[in-house]
Amino acid sequence: MGFDTEVAPIEGPAPRFFHRLFFWFFLATIAMVLPEVVTLNDPIPWASAMGWQLGYPIYGLHILALAGLMYRRPIGGFAVLLAYGGLFGLYEGYMIKQLWNPNWGTEQAWGTIGGVQPLHTVMLVFWLHPLMAYILPLLLTERLMVRPGKLSHRFPSIFQSKRGTRFLLFGTAVYCALSIGSKLSSPSEMVIPLTSIAVLSALGLIWRLPLRGGRFRLEELLPQGRSLAVIWVLLFISYLFYGSTLRREAMPTELVSHIVIWLIYLFLISIIITVTRRTSPLPSERPPLEGWSNAKAVMMAGVTFIVLLLVILIHLPSTLPGAVLILVSFVLGGIFNILFLLYTLLKSLVSSNPVSEEKKNESLSES
To answer: Which of 9, 72, 133, 182 has its CA 20 to 30 A from that of 153?
Structure first.
């Protein structure tokens, strides 16, 4: 199978199947925790049936299928990450039906456009899921859990800079604290974020110490070949199953409601195709990247998260300001991402010719 080897040849033993299985579970856990716990939609997913029956299958299959597919070709910058994340978020349509008939946030709804809720689409498809369920899980695992690989080369301002790494860690900690703090009603509810921290820390320590997973690269661990095909088949089956069993009454009967969602799919897929075709692979010969210890930064980000959360809970007379701030970030962030994706698509369409297959093949090898 052809793989885009934009990094130096992989040295040392390849991960075994149990390494990949554990890593897939770990990545699925991060992808579920960030959007579900941070929004308190499912505060402690391991203690509820929804977490195991809905959370892990949906978040795990989506991030593995989409990331595995993304790694088959050059990653053309942040817009491609956003587009793949948007495809992730569109499960809120045919699986959960929130984009047509939401059962939350109806008091903030703006009406519908072609039967689709614009506010929920902006927040879920272009902000929450791209950022919290797709981009951040990949960036955090690339920086903290594995050897530097493709993402480290593609985004040097984040991964080859201590300042960029600190921004990634502290930015995530502050945003999560503000979001969770805007929804907790008493300090006793601190058990909710602390449970997630404990679970992620335990899985991370198992991965780093007994399994010594830090010696592998992300591109080695994501599903490839037959395993990727199996993941996609399972994802397709999950759409059929959840689409036919979850909130069946919320599925629209008007054709225009489906056409709007199909157009969003087309928009995001067009961005992936056009940007990828115009992305040159990184040089195959380049010095290997070396990481550095993240222990101090991780500890300080964790302390920042806990302290800020306690300050919000204890000293603020109301959680309303935080809730408004997070809602505004969802809406404005989603609108900004839409404009950014539109700009990227137009720029790609009018830019120079696509990179030739011969040039791409210079950086391809059999995986």
So the answer is: 133
Q: What is the DSSP letter of 280?
A: P
**Angular region, 114: left φ>0, alpha ψ -120 to 50, beta rest:** left
Contact criterion met (CB below 8 Å) for 249 and 61: no
Closest CA to 99 of 126, 70, 132, 69: 126
Judge contact between 208 and 214, C-beta under 8 A.
yes
Quick check: 291 and 146 in contact, CB under 8 A? no
Q: What pTM did the predictor assign? A: 0.89
Assess whether pLDDT exceeds 80 at residue 365. Answer: no
Which pair of structure tokens corresponds to residue 160?
């080859």
Which of these, 197, 176, 169, lies nearest to 309 by C-alpha position?
176
86 has a pLDDT exceeding 90:
yes
- What is the DSSP-derived secondary structure letter of residue 128? I
Instruction: Return the half-sphere exposure (C-beta side, CA atoms, 13 A cut-off) of residue 211.
Output: 23
Separation between Cα atoms, residue 83 and residue 67, nearest integer Å: 11
Confidence check: pLDDT of 239 > 60: yes
> How many C-beta atoms lie closer than 10 Å to residue 281's C-beta?
18
Q: Is 290 exposed, middle or buried (0-12, 13-18, 19+ CB in 10 A)?
A: exposed
Could you give the 3-state DSSP secondary structure of residue 339? helix
